[in-house]
Amino acid sequence: MVPFYWMVISALKDNTEIFARPIQWWPRSMRWENFGTAMNYPGFPFLRLLWNSVYYSGTVTVGTVISCAAVGYGFARLRFPGRDLLFILTVATLMIPPIVTFIPTYVIFKNVNLLGTYAPLIIPNCLGNAFFIFLMRQFFKGLPWELSEAAKVDGAGELRIFWQIMLPLVRSALMVVAVFTFLYTWHDFFGPLIYLSDVSQYPLSLGLFAFRAQRTTEWALLMAASTLATAPLVVLFFFTQRYFLGGIAMTGIKG
User: I need a labelling partner for 73 at 20 to 30 A (CA). Which of 101, 174, 178, 230 fits?
Assistant: First the structure.
């Protein structure tokens, strides 16, 4: 909590107070104007960067939740040749460092002229995450088979069973996947650094770096911008903590 506290308090100081010795744990006067100045700082279009982060994180989150839930359901509830082998291969990809795939992925998107867009960032992330697929599979496996069998007797197809019966029963797991995906994507720095070149396309994670690189670093304004960038995540956690903590607890007892 100390780094978070220091970030917020530094956002309310001026530069001299931030580096004062001895350390000042409380500002002499609250400089609330730092937040407005940071949002309107030349070369730092905060609202545009905020929208980029919301768009990037939201799109990837929705795509990841849908794809991981669908694939996890298939591994857990459907019977087809090679299912277990395919699942093992999927989980085995967790041993491959993500950085290894950056160059071939970059070359692929370069050949189809999609560099400088969000496509290289969104498409691969929406195709599923091995850990979240494993997590969803474990949740679906814990549901009684009688539910599916009763629905089939009533004439429900596999898609309807998945969408209307199974998904509501794993809501906590879906929230865990959504929250972790949103957090990871919101903080993603390396991907946007590789694929995006226009400042107007930057998410906040990369925009804050560009803010720091401009001329002399205004540390108070940088801390104010960082606080504003963190605020949506704090709000998200407060609204989802019931599902989030419940999902964490349930994950620990899934076989």
Answer: 101
